[in-house]
Amino acid sequence: MSPMRWMLAALCAAAGCASQSPSVGTTGAANTLAASAVTATTTPPTSTTVSPTTVPPTTVPPTTVPPTTVPPTTVSPTTVPVATAAVVSTYVFPFVGRNVSYGTTHHDYPAIDVFGCRAGVVAPTSGTVTEIRTVDLWEPKVNDPATRGGKYVTMIGGDGVRYYFAHLASVSTTVGANVAPGDALGVMGQTGDARLSACHTHVGISWPCPTKEWQVRRGEVWPPKYLDAWRRGEQLSPVDEVQAVEASHSSACLDAAAARSAAAA
After folding, report:
1. Residue 131 to residues 90, 96, 183: CA-CA distances in angstroms?
2. Helices H, strands E: what count in the chain?
3. 92 Cβ partners below 8 Å, 6+ apart?
4. 94-104 per-position pLDDT tens digit
5. Taking the model in full, what pTM does it have?
6. How many domains does the chain have?
């Protein structure tokens, strides 16, 4: 037996070729052996099943951000103090119902006598009635200056000026009454020392004094230019002139308080 045949026989014996048909040739036996050898040496593939890794989804709890509550801004209204306007007085002619006349001068002090018997006497501006006399106390033999005016009305205007109307036939107001321009004060007459002259009303313009007196009250500035202006409907105020005269006569009220019969005025 040749060496090749011996090898094949050995391989065949190892592989169990003895049971095969003798018709299988050498080439067939070799192929069979080769196949067996491949079969014997082939390792079945390892089937590795990789289970998919299931990663559970990460549930991130939603962050609840509480809404920011911004308190409403309450803007307090700004209170702007309102400036108090200066008192603006309105003036009217203080005689109604009759045609009246007056001059430009008076005897020994600044005042004026207005003529037009029974004319109505009215407030020349707004103000407060501070004094009245409803009884004629004048006695010719005594001729007391405190009673010469007979029946009278004194008022202090909203402008701070004192207005005096004397020799009235009657008085139409009361002390403490608040009057408006044109409100009735009385009626022109002939009381006091006017009994010895024509029916008229004495008009005096001054500043108020703190005590009773007649000397300043009877008149400190000349009324005609103011009466003229008011008669024309003009708003001419005596305030500046009254203040100027008062400043130049700073002791006038003290002197008046010391005058004869001042307390009876």
Report:
1. 22, 22, 16
2. 5, 10
3. 122, 123, 124, 125, 181, 182, 230
4. 999 999 999 99
5. 0.69
6. 1
